[in-house]
Amino acid sequence: MQVTQTPIEGLLVIEPQVFRDARGWFEETYNEERYRAAGITARFVQDNRSCSSYGVVRGLHFQRPPYTQAKLVSCLSGRVLDVAVDLRHGSPTYGQHFAVELSGDNHRQFYIPRGFAHGFSVLSDTAVFTYKCDNLYHPEADGGLLLSDPALGIDWRIPKADRILSEKDGKHPLLRDLGDVFRDLD
User: Fold this and answer.
1) For 63-91, how does the pLDDT look when each residue is reduced to its tens digit (9 = 90+)?
2) 183, part of any domain
3) What's the pTM value of the predicted model, to 2 decimals?
4) Residues catalogued as catalytic
5) Is residue 184, in this structure, part of any structural domain at all?
6) Alpha carbon of 53 to those of 24, 42, 48, 102, 179: distances in Å?
7) Which residue of 174, 177, 181, 182 has the lowest C-beta tally within 10 Å?
């Protein structure tokens, strides 16, 4: 597997080795020993999967301490633009984002450590998205950041008129109004 550090410390793009032959292909999607050797020490306890249609934008979500989550995400079919925003207290890249296209064809994974808001937009007709989390979901710790905040400058690659959002995702605060959510990050 190939692991690439992004310009934001801690965010990693992972390209698992894909073995192809006349029957199709095979890939190992997770191996704790290999991922630990690559610096991913999160111990995953919950897997989630979603299916969405073109134009759906989910995010930007996070869990507040003490229920923060690291995530290992991938797109099983279709194409998504996956985005992480640095919300770590004192980080030199606070408020900056990194985006990567994940698809069923490129097999990429994106590792997002604790202290980030996360979201994705669906670029294909449909997409099946999966993610491993290192902490269980706690509704009382649910938080978000407005995905259309101009201060973030995220190009979701979906025209605004075509975006499909949940009511909740359209009401998250701007970065400037968010406060220091991850001051007590463990």
Assistant:
1) 999 999 999 999 999 999 999 999 998 99
2) no
3) 0.94
4) 61, 131
5) no
6) 26, 30, 17, 15, 33
7) 177
